[in-house]
Amino acid sequence: MNNTSIKEQTTYKRISAIVENLIANNSVYQERLGQQQMIERMYELFTQPNLGDDVQTIADDDLSQRINKILVVHAMAGLLDDFTPEEMTIFDEAVKRK
Questions:
Q1: What whole-number distance in Å separates Cα of residue 87 and Cα of residue 73?
Q2: Helix %, strand %, coil % of the chain (to 5)
Q3: Taking residues 31-58, what's their average pLDDT?
Q4: Is 52 strand, coil or helix?
Q5: pTM exceeds 0.90 for this model
Q6: pLDDT of amino acid 36
Q7: Residue 3 CA: distances (Å) to CA of 6, 7, 10
Q8: Rounded distance, CA 24 to CA 14, Å?
Q9: Rounded (10°) angle between helices 60-76 and 35-46
């Protein structure tokens, strides 16, 4: 096995462990996110060329915070789609008052 494959496997396992832990400890994530889909998405995001930081050089707590922020966005995306028309009207009125 070459170094690239070992590095890719190590990165995938590291990201998997973080995503699994974050989802396991957050009921909203459990309800709204597919764990395997999020692992694959985070792996794609963090292994893009020219991303800046090499995943191997990011501290565990920093990587966990970065992944958590992205999971929040994914979990909240489409939340308004779940509203009934009545709930959407209430939401729209509340936003207008702010």
A1: 21
A2: 80, 0, 20
A3: 87
A4: coil
A5: no
A6: 97
A7: 5, 6, 10
A8: 15
A9: 120
